[in-house]
C-alpha cells in the first residue's frame, strides 16, 4: 500500500511517499480502509523528534494521528465492530500511521463515525476533540458558571474547545486575529482578544481555567489571569514527570521532565494555581461521547482545507504555517 513516512527525525525534511507492507491485524484490531486523515501540530512535533524520549518510534515511521474510513477486516476477538462500519479514530501512541491507504487499530481506540459528517469532517475531529475533552472535562473539571481562557481560538483545538466549553456552561475568552472574530462568536466565544493589538493579561482577570497552546512566555503570563485554586492546562509544555509515568519511560526521563517543568510548577504553586501538562491519549469510549454531541449539533467540525493524498506535504506545510482556520485534512477517496 502507499503511505507517507519519515526515515529519521527532521524538522525541515519532507515526508516520503513509499510502498509499504499492508498492516498486520491482531486479534483485537480492526483494519480500516482510510478515506481521510486529519493533520495536527503533533505530527510536526513527532517529525522533528520533540517527543523521542517518551515516544521512541522506529523507522521508517508512517505519519498521521487522525483517521476516518471503513472497516474491511476485524480480528478474531473484536466485539464492538463489523466489516462495513464507518469509523473514526485517533490511534494510540506507538501505532500511529494514518497518512496511508490502510491502518490497523485496536478496537478500544475506535468509534462509529458521526452520521451527520462527511469522512473529511470526521477525520478532522478525533485528536482535537479528545484533547478538548481531556483538558476541560478530565483535567480542569470545568463547570457551569465558570470562566475559561482558550488560546488560539481559530486553531484546530481552539474551535472545538470553545464549543465544548459553551456546552458545559462556561464563559469563554479567546485570542485570535480580528478577521476570525465573527466565526468564533458563532462558535460561542464571549470575549474576543486580538492577539496582534491587545494583551490578554490586561483584559482578563480571575479566570477559573486556562487552556494554553502557546509558548512559555504566554504560559507564564497566563498564570496572572487565573484565580487562586484555578487550573492551567498546557498542551505545549513544559511536560511534567506524569508524562514519563504515563508512557512508561525510563527513570531518567521522569527526572528530566520534572526539571523541565520545575519553574512553571513553582510559579503556579506560589499563586495557588494547579498546573497540568496534557499529552492526550486515544479513547474510543470518549470519542463515542463526543459523537453524541456532534450528532446533536452541539459540536461542529471546522475544516479549513482538504488536500488530495498525494499533496500531504503541502497540507503539512500549510498546517505548520498556522494560517489555517480550523483543521487541515488529506483525502484518499
TrEMBL record:
It holds the Pfam family ADH_N. Residues 13-330 form the Enoyl reductase (ER) domain. SUPFAM superfamilies: GroES-like (SSF50129), NAD(P)-binding Rossmann-fold domains (SSF51735). It comes from the Bacteria. SMART domains: PKS_ER (SM00829). InterPro entries: ADH-like_N, ER, GroES-like_sf, NAD(P)-bd_dom_sf, YIM1/Zinc_Alcohol_DH_Fams. GO terms for molecular function: oxidoreductase activity. This is NADPH:quinone oxidoreductase. It comes from Spirosoma pollinicola.
Amino acid at each position: 500500500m502507499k503511505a507517507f513516512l519519515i526515515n529519521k527525525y527532521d524538522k525541515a525534511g519532507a515526508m516520503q511517499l513509499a510502498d509499504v507492507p499492508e498492516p498486520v491485524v491482531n486479534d483485537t484490531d480492526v483494519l480500516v480502509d482510510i478515506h481521510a486523515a486529519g493533520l495536527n501540530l503533533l505530527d510536526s512535533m513527532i517529525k522533528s523528534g520533540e517527543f523521542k524520549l517518551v515516544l521512541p518510534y522506529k523507522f521508517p515511521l508512517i505519519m498521521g494521528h487522525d483517521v476516518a474510513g471503513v472497516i474491511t477486516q476485524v480480528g478474531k476477538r473484536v466485539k464492538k465492530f463489523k466489516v462495513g462500519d464507518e469509523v473514526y479514530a485517533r490511534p494510540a501512541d506507538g501505532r500511529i500511521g494514518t497518512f496511508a491507504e490502510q491502518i490497523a487499530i485496536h478496537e478500544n481506540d475506535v468509534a462509529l463515525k458521526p452520521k451527520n459528517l462527511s469522512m473529511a469532517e470526521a477525520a478532522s475531529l478525533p485528536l482535537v476533540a479528545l484533547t478538548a475533552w481531556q483538558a476541560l472535562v478530565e483535567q480542569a473539571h470545568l463547570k457551569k458558571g465558570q470562566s475559561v481562557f482558550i488560546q488560539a481560538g481559530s486553531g484546530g483545538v481552539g474551535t472545538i474547545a470553545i464549543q465544548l466549553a459553551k456546552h458545559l456552561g462556561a464563559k469563554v475568552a479567546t485570542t485570535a486575529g480580528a478577521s476570525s472574530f465573527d466565526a468564533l462568536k458563532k462558535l460561542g466565544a464571549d470575549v474576543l482578544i486580538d492577539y496582534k493589538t491587545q494583551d490578554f493579561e490586561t483584559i482578563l482577570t480571575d479566570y477559573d481555567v486556562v487552556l494554553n497552546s502557546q509558548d512559555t512566555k504566554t504560559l507564564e503570563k497566563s498564570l496572572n489571569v487565573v484565580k487562586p485554586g484555578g487550573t492551567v492546562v498546557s498542551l505545549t509544555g513544559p511536560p511534567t514527570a506524569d508524562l514519563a509515568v504515563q508512557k512508561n519511560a525510563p527513570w531518567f526521563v521522569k527526572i528530566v521532565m520534572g526539571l523541565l517543568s520545575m519553574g512553571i510548577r513553582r510559579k503556579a504553586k506560589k499563586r495557588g494555581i494547579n498546573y497540568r501538562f496534557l499529552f492526550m491519549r486515544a479513547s474510543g469510549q470518549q470519542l463515542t461521547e463526543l459523537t453524541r454531541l456532534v450528532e446533536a449539533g452541539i459540536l461542529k467540525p471546522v475544516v479549513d482545507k482538504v488536500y488530495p493524498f498525494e499533496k500531504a506535504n503541502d497540507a503539512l506545510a500549510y498546517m505548520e504555517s498556522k494560517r489555517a482556520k480550523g483543521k487541515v485534512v488529506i483525502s484518499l477517496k
